[in-house]
Task: inverse folding
């Protein structure tokens, strides 16, 4: 996946997780300890003059603020989360992502 593909994945994931938690861009920025401009640029559509990929530090802060693993913001397979939610009977995306992370950790140890 190229740089544009990764940026598109991050943009969609940050927006999806933020909206699932009914957070405004400003609320997410405050929770994450990043500027509002960082969130706006991160979520800006590809091709927009405002579109910028966040730094790794900002991406980690956003993931923590959203309560998801960093991988959830860079994985281009969100359908895996939907399948896990259905299979496990989990109501929210953050709960599903935590369950996936836990299972993954247990399987790798």
Result:
């Amino acid at each position: 996946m190229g740089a544009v593909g990764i940026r598109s994945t991050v943009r969609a994931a940050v927006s999806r997780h933020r909206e699932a938690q009914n957070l405004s861009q400003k609320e997410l920025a405050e929770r994450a300890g990043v500027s509002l401009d960082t969130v706006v640029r991160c979520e800006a559509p590809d091709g927009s003059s405002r579109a910028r990929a966040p730094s790794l530090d900002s991406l980690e802060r956003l993931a923590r603020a959203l309560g998801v693993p960093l991988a959830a913001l860079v994985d281009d397979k969100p359908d895996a989360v939907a399948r896990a939610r259905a299979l496990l009977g989990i109501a929210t995306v953050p709960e599903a992502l935590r369950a996936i992370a836990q299972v993954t950790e247990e399987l790798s140890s």
About this structure: The mean pLDDT is 79. The chain is about 70% helix and 0% strand. Helices lie at 3-20, 25-32, 36-43, 56-66, 71-74, 79-88, 93-108. The chain has one domain: 3-108.
